Amino acid sequence: MLDIRKLRLLRELAHRETIAAVADALSYTPSAVSQQLTALEREAGVPLLERTGRRVTLTPAAHGLVGHTESILAILEQATAELVQGRTTLAGTLRIGTFPTAIRTILAPALVILSTEHPALELTVTELDPALAPDALRAETLDIALIQEYDYVPVDPGAALDTEPLLEETIYLAALSDSSLAGHRQTSWIAGTPGTLCHTMTVRACQAAGFTPRIRHHADDFDAVLELVAAGAGVALVPELGARTPPPTVTLTPLDARRRTRIAYRRGMAAHPAVRAARTALRRAAAHRDH
């Protein structure tokens, strides 16, 4: 019988690509991960890893096993959800991950709803870049999270997660005057930290307009981005939730591009009472964000 804990390590290696990253995510030492994966190979009776120096890649058999592991873990999550449904009071800890611009407008109202309707539920919130949320959900450091994608930056959360749409936002060009993307070929740009979805969105949107932006400043807080625009430091792309209170000198020009936010959770968790309550509260808060 294959050990589910070892299978989970193999699944994480498929996503994170290095043993060190798996160890860091799941609080193991790299040597412990290597030992567990070697033991899994013995249990499986076929090679699962190809080692070239320090580099490790999965064999075709390992990739097939990862697919089965996703299904097994989803079934276990569903079984847990069904057990919890028998409780009369919704209690325990619910770990929620979100991005900064959603905290004030969506998450805070949702927390009020959850705390009022389920006072025994212990809520914890982690602010993180949406690109990191799928890994955190798979590693079970989060139970539910808000993830994003842009028109120019599609995101595949992977087979381990289920998602559902929450809201769609307009993307604005923030500048000191009404203008178009193409009119800022030679302008300095302000974008998020390299590696974030916001940074990638800025680069790809500009490339679609026929040029590569000259990014001079990096800032992840949209209030700070708008203040930099107001100071004449450059122009930027800002989603609707981040552009609610722009400085009076900043002009927001709507673009055709959109940012979409989805609720994400592990497969099999949709019917878990705490996750279901959070999904409902988030949808209610998103529907009333402008009221």
Automatic annotation (TrEMBL):
SUPFAM superfamilies: Periplasmic binding protein-like II, Winged helix' DNA-binding domain. Keywords: Activator, DNA-binding, Transcription, Transcription regulation. GO terms for cellular component: protein-DNA complex. GO terms for molecular function: DNA binding; DNA-binding transcription factor activity. The keyword Ribosomal protein does not apply. Residues 2-59 form the HTH lysR-type domain. The keyword Transcription regulation applies. Signal peptide: none annotated. Belongs to the LysR transcriptional regulatory family. PANTHER family: LYSR SUBSTRATE-BINDING, TRANSCRIPTIONAL DUAL REGULATOR HCAR-RELATED. This is LysR family transcriptional regulator. It comes from Nocardia huaxiensis.
